[in-house]
Input
Amino acid sequence: MTDTASKDADTDLPQARKRGLVASLELDMRLLGMIGAFIVIAVVFNILTGGRFLTPRNVFNLTIQTVSVAIMATGMVFVIVTRHIDLSVGSLLATTSAVMAMLQTEWLLQIFGFSLGHPALPWLAILGGLVAGTVIGAFNGYLIGYLTIPAFIVTLGGLLIWRNVAWYTTNGQTIGPLNETYQMFGGISGTLGTTWSWTFAVVASVAALYALWSARRTKQGHGFPVKPLWAEGAVGAIAVGAIMGFIWLLNSYEVPQRVLERDFEARGEVLPEGYTAAYGLPISVLLLILVALVMTIVARRTRLGRYIFATGGNPDAAELSGINTRLLTVKIFAIMGFLCALSAVVASARLSFHSNDIGTLDELRVIAAAVIGGTALSGGIGTIYGAILGALIMQSLQSGMAMVGVDAPFQNIVVGAVLILAVLIDIIYRKRTGDT
Amino acid sequence: MAETPLVELNDISIAFGGVQAVDHVSVDLYPGEVVGLLGHNGAGKSTLIKCLSGAYRMDSGEIRINGEPAEINNPRDARAYNIETIYQTLALADNLDAASNLFLGRELTTMTGLVDDGAMESETRKVMGRLNPYFQKFSSPVSALSGGQRQSVAIARAVYFNARILIMDEPTAALGPQETRMVADLIQELKKQNLGIFLIDHDVHQVKELCDRAAVMKNGKLVGVVKVDDVTTDDLLGMIIAGKTPEGVAA
Output
């Protein structure tokens, strides 16, 4: 026992160890692995499509296609980390989408006597949808936490129930076109434009650098070891470079001339000679970035997040530590429901209408995204950024194969195989590193 | 002893299905005292103590803390009475680091209400420095720690939060000799600070060494409570196995 104790002391003394490049940068290996996989996929498809995969236009489309699943995947991380599952997210998305569509096209008009196009319509509809999603999610959580029905059963039932509540709500009709302001959350119909996109890039870069600096200062304040300054600088440079590069790419996607002409005509003006405009950062992607930020803070820096991970790691320990794990379950599923409704805004706004089959099979995409992103079904492990990267990887595979012209059945076969392979790689990685 | 007992467990009963796991048992505990709970597996000692720690709810009986009737329905209630438990199956979340485990359920927060990991790690380093100076793995999840290191995290949790009543369920079961020594020293230290400690153990030698009194259970019933200095280890074994209290030693 003395041996192990002194050996532990040795290996953990930061000065006593030669540190490699990766160790000095203190980068997350799993994150690097996923980014590496994503880059490989992007480069391979770019070659196969003759350079069409990495055009600004396709990157733009890829990001807006990923948003809906990615938003839900961040919530699924919490669900899976606490050893639950939610099979009802696709149906919940349909129900909340139906509620929001009905609110803005019928119910609010009947209740308040609003006319179509009233400025409060989209916001009240979104509010109604978010409340509905949160309440339904909390109810699921109540059935699971307090009545101890397994999450698998509650949400399997929910898969049927909410899909058909959506159907009943709209009588199965497609409802649209949705409010124009509302449609701005969908992607191409709502973007920040060049100036605001660059403004965002600068603000985000400053925030990232400030976060790094303040983390370093906190560590120093407590006298903990910090990484060398050059490593800190390198991480900061990578972060700023990634943000700027991403915005530059999105800002390179120019609005087609005929679309500009149409816009100017609609305002009764003539398109000036040589006028160009770029789409820039879509509002839906901005929404995803905000969700990712808030969810990451919740996961890492709040008691709620701490309890979620503690409960996932050892439910008995969490309960014995005085954590109300039942109420925690309600909160987790309420968050999931809220995020389903937020995804419903993006999904229906992107389509510009609510359709009866919206969100079909999304539950599987969302679970797959979380799992590809390193969330362990055995609980206790998972990251928000991982789930978003997982969603991005799946969407890249799907759209890349579609561009290459792979037959639809093969596309799904490949995505399924990748899901299994990703989990296998993760298991092997954890065994090798002894990381649990 | 004329002072008020720290804990009185009066006439506690609890049944699971048809099995009477604890059958009208009464035990008390004074400040600065270690009371050992002995018995075979399934004798009901862990079950009895879980009524005090809030993990189980007793069917009948009464718990008094400092002479006042206490209502303990869950682990949160127990904590409010400064009762801390160190479980046989260590109640640690394996995926979190030592500081997160130490403060689990009672996180330090910054002014903005976010958890203050720096402050928690700093406090953890201080308390661990006292208990186990070799401990250095502050940033690894506790699954990477040895049994003794994990036990020291669990004990640090109780010490840090000023427990007045400490329940230790076989605290040395997973430990090597040196770490067992460390726990024994720690118990002596905690006694001096006037804590009352319930120590659940299989090992009669250990109970004789560490405890002031021993309560022996068999088949859910209390065989007897004795002062350990009045009995031999053979007497204790006799109580555990045969369920007989030696003449004239009942405490």
